[in-house]
Predict the 3D structure of the following.
Amino acid sequence: MLQISRPALGFPLWRLGFRPFFLGSAAYACVALGLWLLALSGAPVWQPTGGWLAWHLHEMPFGFGVAAVAGFLLTAVPNWTGAQALSGPPLAALFLLWLLTRLAWLGGAPLALCAVLELAFLPLLAFALGRSLWRARQRNNYPLVGVLLLFALADGLAVAGQLLDRADWQRQGAHAALWLLAALSGIIGGRVIPFFTQRGLGRTQAVPALKWLERPALAGLAVLAILAAAGLDLQPRAWMALPFGLVGVLHGIRLSRWYDKGLWRVPLLWSLHLAYAWLVLALLGMAAWHLGLIDNGSAALHALTVGGLAGLILAMMARVSLGHSGRPLLPPAGMRWAFVALNASAFARVLLPTWLPQGALVLAGLLWLLAFGMFLARYAGWLCQPRVDGLSG
């Protein structure tokens, strides 16, 4: 169990990374989607830096997604390494940098200021995590730092697109970030989903990892991110169906190996498995789009963002927040409906626009707000309170 030195304790919110960053990620999920729905309706009277479309494209991966990643890794890496967790004023300063950056973009601050703030966060996060992993000589976790640095490069590409008025660079950076988030989901999901499933169902035998499967599946997502950064997924290309389809099949095999029919009794398990299923569907959907079998690549990307990435973020935040606040691994009343709402949001965003173009977007957005709003209603107070078991963290 991770212990934090007494002088670093202070206000509970600053004791461990999951507390401020999970709270910030969930709150921003509501703010960002709520404002995006208003922007689509023409209601807002101000413009964020770069305009509403550029803001939405950038802030979902680099604002909402990055906060969740930071919260998880700042909590998990100290447990893996036994090192002192980032806490107290340093943690508060890192979170404040993330928050000020979000406010700068949203408030229409000068682009140069937004760029300076934006491009500082990920390198600082990678340094904090990389230092702990280096000192512990945990080479198997070095790829996490590598993905964060690639993520910083994708962010740089997106910001450069705004600075130089290159909309294509903005899209390339954002799309690369989405597949890098998928790569992180693959790395982390491959560790926690089979482990949580085994522990949650009381199984004695773990699912063994297969090197021939794990390494190509994870490397494949990184390759897709590089291809996206190069702009090769902006238009349909028949040959691109091969990497997307192959990586999708590999991750489908991974998911099938973790499956246990008992998981449907446990919301904290089926929410994780469904999120990973959306990731597989997104990969296969992108392959179908490149082959011309479906007309809209946006549907496949939103299967990734809403069902896969947001689904995994919500499920992981719900479980990690329970375990690290000293509570039993049983979601609070009604939380299962938050998981249902988010999966319904993905369904509405991916499958309904063909028949209800505007109505589907509004329905998907409202279901998203319901899902993350329920998380905030149930967990926000816990994230700001000491552990119930009296331990530090």
About this structure: Residues 10-383 form a domain with the Cytochrome C Oxidase; Chain A fold (CATH 1.20.210.10). The chain has a mean pLDDT of 94. Residues 176 and 226 are 7 Å apart (CA to CA). Residues 167-200 form the longest helix (34 residues).
